[in-house]
């Protein structure tokens, strides 16, 4: 199917099903129940899952395949956001030209930064990308204020030209981003019993783009080009001796992953039309590294899982407060309840970063392959157990 | 001329902090070959050692003031630190005042302990793993450490003043023959610079003039051979990790009066320190110190009004710009050795 072998086709279908039915899957608990706060099926969060999924897939094409650890990838995300918002300001509120320009701009920036940074490898490459990203952040924050909006960020205004669209709606509001007449914030709600499912146009738009991005990533992973990138990761020197110059390949990978980041940034701006410099700060670059590692470096599905896991924790765990904890552990005797709550409390709410840090460390120490490796280990363990049980059953006692 | 001297002085204190952190990073990298992203967190822990000590010293109990009442007619109480009861009022007040310098004594054992525990407990298991894994696990550790500090001390900066003898500024210009009020410089920054110089000198002397240091230097050059000679080099490297942690911690302790510590100060310094290390040359101790001061001074020159008018925004990016130029023109940094982190 689509030039994929069976395993990849299955993977793509699984991802497609997960994205398309996410409003159901992420809303397993009825509205108003005690577990409802674990529901993640609201548009804002689902959009973030998908957008950061795209970002992480792109990062993985660079880090997972070539082994070059870029610590400044958020810069391209920021460039994409700014480009998209400028398109909204100047051209029209249609998201398509915004996304196209964002991808082109971030690609150009990636070409420039990649061309310089890729002269070095290892930690020097990481520091170079970090330095470029920090420079872009600092400039966007201060000197480039006319272009980037500085500290307040780049926002839409009523007097923007929007030559193909309208400067303001008939009611005198700033128009919202849309796709040929449909607005990104349009949502439909489906109520079944006490369950409420929200279907948001913006989410589905992002979801379709995620699928395209994912499909492209599979094709890259399986292509001769992907093979070349893997060769760069495993032994660059040998590649040199074979008479192949690895630089164009790594640069291509860098530009592609920068374009993915720009795409993610454009989608962010399409969902919420503003862009701020903090999107380019180095902690944002660190976050995508965390996502990729947590999910599984070099695997196809891993980065998407990692992005989902981190965004879920950020939004759901950080919302739990001590009252909720008390209601959970109410079945325990009072003293014990307080004790358990005291123990758990530092890890939730504002302390979710602590949980994240600990999980991340455990993953790096024990599961270098991330969640994907964890899944594989569990499934192979189950399979072994079943095999052993079948073995025992089928063993016949020797006749005496 | 006076403006140039002033900018050099201004660059010295930040440069000292960069140099101390970069020195510790390089010690760890040069001995154990580990890229320690948690080093900024050690700097931060050092700063919070000072906060902790000044809080401990300030612990007080309530005492009724004879013959005075508050507006409700209750006896007026005031807080008296325990330290006043133990050492008398004058000495007690002096100790409270000098809490930050005293924290040096408190921080050294704490930081060495933290460093040794970190090395034995975590980093030991990462020697054979790729550099990327080391970066990632120490990055995770840094997140955990700073969240723990945030949990106990809150997210806001905690002002902790320098001893009153060193607060305020003095006229440095008069000392070197300029007119009065041309070069005004805070006392504590000068103390910080002197302190950094002493620490850096001590570390170099320790490595250069003691048998222990000689063995460590031999181990940095060729670990395997030193091991074959029957020397337990791992144990010495562990101790060096503790010393590197202590250097970072002391840099943090003394930095407290300059900048009130908060939980993410370590991360803020870490990124710059890495740039410093790379500019200086991975694994080169003099390179780290040199690059630290150089970048600190460059940064302060770039913040001069005249320079900013000429090239807007240069003060924000100068360090990164210098790093990029140096990395591209001198691939091993200013004083890097051949064969270190070449892959």
Overview of this protein structure:
- The complex is a heterodimer of chains A (400) and B (343).
- Chain A is mainly alpha-helical and 400 residues long.
- Chain A has a domain at 6-281: Orthogonal Bundle (ABC transporter involved in vitamin B12 uptake, BtuC).
- Chain A is built from 17 helices and six strands.
- In chain A, the strands form three sheets. Chain A has a two-stranded antiparallel sheet. A two-stranded antiparallel ribbon of chain A has the order 2-3. In chain A, strands 4-5 form a two-stranded antiparallel ribbon.
- In chain A, a hairpin with a 2-residue loop joins strand 4 and strand 5.
- In chain A, helix 3 (43-66) runs antiparallel to helix 11 (247-271) and helix 4 packs across helix 11 (247-271).
- Chain A is globular.
- Chain A starts with 5 loop residues before the first helix and ends in a 6-residue tail after the last helix.
- With 343 residues, chain B is mainly alpha-helical.
- Chain B has one domain (2-53, 100-329): ABC transporter involved in vitamin B12 uptake, BtuC.
- Helices cover 68% and strands 7% of the residues of chain B.
- Chain B contains 15 helices and four strands.
- Chain B has helices spanning 2-32, 39-57, 82-87, 89-97, 99-121, 131-153, 172-175, 187-209, 211-221, 223-228, 233-255, 265-280, 285-302, 305-310, 314-329, and strands spanning 60-69, 75-81, 169-171, 184-186.
- Chain B has a two-stranded antiparallel ribbon.
- In chain B, strand 1 (60-69) and strand 2 (75-81) form a beta hairpin.
- In chain B, helix 2 runs parallel beside helix 6 and helix 12 (265-280) packs parallel to helix 15.
- The longest helix of chain B is centred in the first third of the chain and has 31 residues, at 2-32.
- Chain B is globular.
- Chain B starts with a helix and ends in a 14-residue tail after the last helix.
